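Everyone, study these two lines:
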Amino acid sequence: MSDAPAGPAARPRGGRPNWFIALPVDAGRWFEDSVSAPPEGLRRFHPDDLHLTLAFLGACGEEAARRAFARASEWPGAPREATLGPLVPMGAPARYSALAFLLEQGRAEVEAAIGRVRDGWLAAAGARPDTRPPKAHVTVARPRRRGLADERRGGLAWAATIDVRGQPIALGRPALFTWAAEPGARLFRVIDGG
């Protein structure tokens, strides 16, 4: 959907949690089998954290996020399956915010659907409009916020070794996500839906 922010990063100490509406993605066996441990400075997502962001609401608060999620029935629900494309940096390659698989099959349909619902959901939450074109992607790793240039280059080299093009994935129903309650392996938790 977007280059940055594509979704919340690790929780800063004392920061307000971010909220987003996304389709949970079933990692199946392909994730553990094909997405190797990343190099220093890059955090690979837990398989249960994989998702495709539909609307990034930011630090709007739970009540506002739930107002947006109350409109989740507007999601057209298609496609329910897609295939993965290349693993690419989100944002400028030298300062990317995430590494994500673009969708291959199903990409045009998902991006068109995001374009139909995102503005209304953001407005319902009182969130800032997102004027960038939707980009259907599944983030799998993030660099440290203040990561070194060498670490980012290492992340790009790692990404180049991973090829799951054509891998089918199941897309769940819209869910409301926020940060995990406690720091640990998981970054996110589903509050509603999914």
User: Anything to note?
Assistant: The first strand starts at residue 19 and ends at 24. The chain has a mean pLDDT of 90. Residues 11 and 136 are 24 Å apart (CA to CA). The domain at 19-193 is CATH 3.90.1140.10 (Cyclic Phosphodiesterase; Chain: A,).
